[in-house]
Amino acid sequence: MTKTGAEILVDCLKAEKVDVIFGYPGGVLLGIYDTLFDADLRHILPRHEQGGIHAADAYARASGKVGVCFATSGPGATNLVTGITNAHMDSVPVVAFTGQVPTALIGGDAFQEADIIGITRPIVKHSYLVQDVKDLARTIKEAFYLARTGRPGPVVVDLPKDVMADKTKYVKSPKMDLPGYSPTYEGHPLQIKKLLKMLESAKRPVIYAGGGVIISEASKELKAFSEKFNIPVISSFMGLGAMPTEHPNYLGWLGMHGNYASNKAVTDSDYIIAIGTRFSDRSTGRISGFAPKAKIAHIDIDPSSISKNVSIDIPIVGDNKAVLKQITKYYDKYKWEKNEAARNEWMEQVRSWDREKPFSYKQSDKVIKPQYVVEKISELTKGEAIITTEVGQNQMWAGQFYNFKYPRQFITSGGLGTMGFGFPAAIGAKIAMPDKEVFDIAGDGSFLMNMQELCTAIQHRLNVKIAILNNKFLGMVRQWQHLFFNNRYSYTCLECQPDFVKLAESYGCIGLRAETPADVEKVLKESLKVKDKPVVMDFVVDREENVFPMIPAGAALNEMIFGNEG
Amino acid sequence: MRHIISILVENKPGALSRIGGLFSGRGYNIESLSVGVTGDPNISIMTIVTKGDDRVVEQIIKQLRKLINTLKVRDVTQVEHIEREMILVKVQALPKNRTDIFSIVNTFRAKVIDLTGDSMVIEITGTKDKNKAFLHVLEPFGIIEQVRTGSVAIGRGNKATTEFTKQDIKQED
After folding, report:
1. Contact flag A307-B58 (C-beta cutoff 8 Å)
2. pLDDT along chain A (566 residues), means of 10
3. Which value does ipTM take for this structure?
4. Which residues of A touch B59 (CB under 8 A)?
5. By residue range, what is the domain housing residue A46?
6. Same structural domain for residues A222 and A256?
7. Residue/partner pairs of A234-237 with CB below 8 Å, 24 or more apart
8. Closest Cα of chain B to A304: distance in Å?
9. Residues of A with catalytic roles
10. In this structure, are A134 and A277 located in the same domain?
């Protein structure tokens, strides 16, 4: 049976079990959209392509499935660039379909033509320009396969208008042609034995868990490994949720705004087992001062993440979950009792550091402290809500003061640091997990970057909460100006802003405001009563509150500065 | 350290720009780059000469292997190998200097492939060092133009550096 490219596309999406598309139509997509009109596929129309891809990204993070978005050629496609980069940096499986001008016009600077394959080349896992309808089904199958396997990432598929109208015989399960792609899933047994041999003699071991633990669904195995040998677990910011915050072996997260105990433990540790992390600069601080006393083992599915930033003693290429399962096979070969006492003593030591200096802030009865808002959200949602964040202070406070319980709960732009991510991400997460309460912990600056998505959220009656920690500043940049630029607040003051309550109401959403600490709980409780539409909460917070602890740029993990203990 | 990296890559649109872009995007150095098709018309071989310490070169190789279109990436400098580069050089050759130039050409086992009243085009193939020495002695006569291929390299012995089987894709060092 012959079908048009557009019909094959829809069939392929169904074959990949896609249940929602975040898409924005346009000239060259007319044929595809005409087919979508009758297709049994849920379509969400963002109000800006960037909102669409962030929603697809968060949908993927919350569900573990591949996120799908559509944008038209030219400006539609270029509006995806930030979102593609965001997904790339955080290893999120997204397939972005872009329209393209007809093949005969490519290269001629046609209306709404952009070389999106060229533009996105450094920010994709892979990309395709489909030049022949006969290649379409195989290409889509490969795109989804590449996006979700190995180290996941975004794949762009560029679809010229004429190819979508051309007809060909539709083959249901085309054979993929990827001779150069074969991720390693099982770890090398010899390396695994080395990892355990080193652990046998370690007295101050630490597990450093990254976002890769969440991606590979290895939380259970991670917990079992930690409990078996009584090893403290530290996460990266992206690894938040891999272990419940309240688990006795979980110490916190390391890095620029991580907790004292985690940074100190890494600095004093004699053996770090890193799992699914890429040793980002925000996590390691100054490399020369990172874990100076430790041997490091590193499990990661991406060989290029190993020894990229930090030199690794025991590299293990493989899937985190698979390797953590393999490890258990060799447990009996080693004499664990030898250093059991030392490990237990170390565990007590790191816990005492945590008791000594937990995340803290100075409460006020006059002005709302932003940390207090996050703490209250955590308490009232019982740590069960999916939390998305914008970028900056709001993001750090969310990481510090929400008590996460499960993986895929914390959705944040870790690598790229994209302001404007949190709100469309909340939309994507809510669509993926409709039974979960979803909160976007936002700053006033970030929210303004993608607030047009209020229209998308109200159209689909999405129950998402936006908690704006409104300090009328680009808070994190202001904090750096305060600490390192002599309080010269160059263009970071956002005093001109809309009335967020009225703004919400103008879209048909609920708008609430809290101006005193006493209002916080009241406003949050009222928001939780709303089940059928978005709620925007404007928390008027202490304008010059800072995020602490903090490791200044270029400093090592043990050179934290404090400031909020009162 | 100078490294010669051999890359087998699928002959698909955009594949070469992914490799070139990787070097520029990540700030890796390229001394020369040459590319041509292999015995299999679907596969090209690219030879890149780069400089960097061991850590950088290890990253370059890992990043190249990560590309979906690359089939095999090898650091040829890790094995016994032969390296060649070809240069076409156009040199001023006034009648009074011709004999001298011919003698230099013979000494270096180069070839004169075009001759006019006052110029010559010479083809030379060799290692970087030999070619450099050749150009150096030609310089006093006046070099008008030079075009070079960039280095290509092949391992010594009976084992193919370029052939690949499914088993050793991206696994071999």
Report:
1. yes
2. 96 97 98 96 98 98 98 98 98 98 97 98 98 97 98 98 97 92 97 98 98 98 98 98 97 97 98 98 95 98 96 98 97 95 98 96 96 98 98 98 98 98 98 98 98 98 98 98 96 96 98 98 98 98 97 94 73
3. 0.92
4. 304, 307-308
5. 2-169
6. yes
7. A234/A206, A234/A207, A234/A208, A234/A209, A234/A262, A234/A265, A234/A266, A235/A208, A235/A209, A235/A210, A236/A208, A236/A209, A236/A210, A236/A211, A236/A277, A236/A280, A236/A283, A236/A414, A237/A282, A237/A283, A237/A399, A237/A412, A237/A414
8. 5
9. 49, 111-112, 161, 476
10. no
